Model the fold of this input.
Amino acid sequence: MNTKLTIAVSIAALTLGIAPLSAQVRCATTIDNRCVDQRVLNAAQNVAIQSSQQKISQTARPVAPTQDGSYTKPTDITRFENSQFGTGLTHLP
Amino acid sequence: MGLLAPKGAARGLGDKVKSLMGRLFLGGALCFVTHAAQSADMPTKAANVTEQSNNWTLNYTTDVRYFSWSGTRGFPSNSPLAANGRGTMIYAPMSLSLSGNVSPDFKLDFVARGGYVSAKQTTANETGSVSTPVDTQLSATGTYYGFTGFQPFLSVMTNLPTGKSALYGNDRFARMDPDLVDLQTYGEGFNIGPTIGVNIPLSTSLVMTLSAGYTARGAFNKEGPAIFVPQPSQRVQNGNESTVTLALAYAEGALSANGSVAYSWDTQSTVDGIAQYRAGSHVLISGGLGYAFDSHWSATLDGYFLHTNRNDVPDVTGTLLIPEAFNSNSNLVRLNTGLKYAFDNGITVGPIASFLYRDANAWVPTAFAFVPAKTRWSVGATGGYAVNKKLTLNARFEHIWTRENIHPDAPLFPGTGVPDMTGRAWMISAGLTLALN
Done:
């Protein structure tokens, strides 16, 4: 499954990469029309999205492995669900 | 779009097909593209458009992590069979990320993440092991830059059940303490989580983001009690979750910072259709600081605090969920810090450390007891080497210590308690990030 996904994403990426649909980008602007530091905007948006999907997976967040330490660890969020006192009752012999 | 293709410009059939593919890719965001076409000619915004030679970036990132641990108790610690325990885990996550603009105003980000894990635990002469792909996560985010003063976005994340959620027989012992290894489980169901939000730049270096997300979590099979032969399966349906978030990020000169506050609430969780509990609402506060002392030295500090309110649990009749008498959820604090030195030849090295604390005030209704405090410390080092503009190598090692205080006996069941427990682990990892375009 992972191999198929990797191939699919690669094909999509190559298709888009070979022929970028836009060679120009507009910056995010303040209310007085000044360009915002894109890194700052990305940081705020990514933190907000990840915090809004804390239980999307018990395994990992959809981020690069090098960014695992930048967000909450899934097992910290779903610990109760996987304890003997949540639905993890089946851990017991 | 008007800035990309001037009026009257000749375009081949191939270009039109590719353009159509891009529009189809946008899906529900078509209204934004339409607005972009209408607003692209506005002269006041032209100053905010920049040229890029190739605006799509594709990155492949992977690493291999090896954990080896031993402790005075296996996992789960209060299993009747638990004694001294030890285990290993090899976890190899990987991701592909794609980012780019399909119009000057519309940016798309995609991430696909998967991996493979092999884990083994031995405790009280029982050994469990598992080798399996883990679940796969996909995410897609579209952000619209065409408005002045705010940028709306829509994100959809999914968890695909490519891992193994049910571990039959002794394989169940392959689940280990997540404070000593990276993974506690190896799979669950199909989850999908849309998030809608808006970025509001308060200045060129300070951005506030408001968002709301909903996580719909699919059912999956898990092994039933091992005392039955053949061992049955159970259908687990974890509760769905709704979350609202406020986030801030700032960067100016050598200082960068971000923080967020999120409030979440869940629906009930069931096993085989029978309500088990409803997780209490929780508040997550997270933040991070980074500072570059000069061109070589930099430091980071980040972490989060999690507080969960009382769960709802079955009443004496087992038919209704009512608030539990005491809060069975611990507060949690996690802090990570690191210092980094960057050499001129592209090598970076530095120490890292982390601390985790769960407080002692958690009530376990099934044991009629408070669970003890637990601390986790780690110290190690990290390093990286930028081979060239496309390839970066990285490595990390850590030594981890955990300590959990005494578990008291359950009332009327002397001898069911567990003495204080300690665990130690080593973790080493090596990986790379490769720019594919």
